[in-house]
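Q: what sequence does this backbone want?
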């Protein structure tokens, strides 16, 4: 009987040893190696955990610089209140300052102003992306609109539209319309020319190429740009709400201005925390809509896309019932 210890072991190649080494690593070393990998994809749960760690780190620094008695703090209470002191004033912000009413007032102004900018900016952007001469015509306006300091629009809108609700809506419109035009034109220009060539080969007219080829293919990028710009517009509304008229809701910007002059200043910190929370919630809601409208691009179930497709098909059927095309005639025939 042969002893297994007497048998010669097969030589292990260096390549096999290298491939076996990572498997022998512990879970912590494997995670660290994966952690430092460039452009590594992570799971949604891991992204959520690291985001929460960032929030906890910020609140930890906030607590550290405001901990202890007022005379012992790194930052005095006159500059920054502690987290406990700040959140203790939330009741007065909610009830005395009518927080929810002011949030909805700001959202209403942003929605109307941004919606108007989209209604005007998207058609102009489509024309700019399709026709070079139209783009050259609007380029000075878009450059001006994208580079002018937003705060400089406040006295201009005051002089043109007064201090009522219309001024705040038009402020958002003027601040956003140039960005929408530029992003829409870029999305149209990024559509490959092979799609146009195919459409022309199949006999499509110029209007059909724009409405049924270029615009639908650019629509996911346009919607994504609108989603990101809406968060930017929500930040702009703070500048437009420096003044309020009569008994109207001043909005979140009015709360900040009033708290700066009359106090309590803890309300400023609370509003600055509430603004990104509301903006993030709206962004996530729009992202869910985006996934349902464009599942082939963003991986959603496509529920809204099927609804829109069904409505468009029914519209085409109705058009066929009420606007029938006259039959084509050959030469020498009468219709």
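A:
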């Amino acid at each position: 009987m042969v002893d297994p210890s007497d048998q010669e072991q097969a030589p292990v190649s260096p390549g096999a040893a290298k491939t076996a080494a990572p498997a022998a690593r512990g879970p912590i070393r494997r995670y660290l190696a994966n952690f430092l990998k460039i452009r590594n994809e992570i799971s949604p749960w891991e992204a959520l955990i690291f985001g929460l760690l960032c929030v906890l780190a910020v609140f930890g620094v906030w607590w550290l610089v405001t901990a202890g008695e007022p005379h012992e703090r790194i930052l005095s209470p006159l500059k920054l209140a502690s987290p406990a002191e700040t959140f203790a004033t939330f009741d007065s912000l909610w009830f005395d300052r009518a927080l929810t009413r002011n949030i909805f007032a700001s959202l209403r102004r942003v929605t109307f102003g941004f919606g108007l900018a989209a209604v005007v900016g998207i058609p102009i952007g489509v024309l700019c992306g399709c026709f070079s001469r139209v783009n050259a015509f609007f380029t000075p306006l878009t450059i001006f609109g994208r580079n002018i300091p937003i705060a400089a629009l406040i006295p201009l809108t005051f002089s043109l539209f007064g201090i009522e609700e219309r001024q705040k809506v038009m402020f958002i419109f003027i601040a956003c319309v140039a960005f929408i035009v530029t992003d829409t034109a870029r999305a149209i220009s990024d559509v490959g020319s092979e799609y146009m060539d195919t459409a022309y080969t199949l006999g499509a007219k110029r209007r059909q190429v724009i409405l049924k080829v270029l615009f639908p293919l650019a629509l996911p990028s346009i919607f994504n740009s609108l989603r990101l710009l809406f968060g930017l517009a929500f930040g702009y509304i703070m500048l437009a709400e420096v003044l309020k008229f009569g008994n109207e809701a001043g909005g979140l910007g009015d709360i900040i201005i009033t708290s700066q002059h009359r106090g309590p200043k803890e309300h400023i910190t609370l509003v600055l925390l509430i603004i990104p929370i509301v903006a993030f919630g709206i962004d996530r809601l729009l992202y869910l809509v985006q996934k349902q409208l464009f599942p082939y691009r963003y991986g959603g179930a496509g529920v809204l896309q099927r609804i829109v497709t069904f409505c468009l098909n029914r519209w085409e059927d109705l058009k066929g019932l009420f606007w029938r095309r006259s039959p084509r005639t050959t030469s020498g025939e009468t219709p």
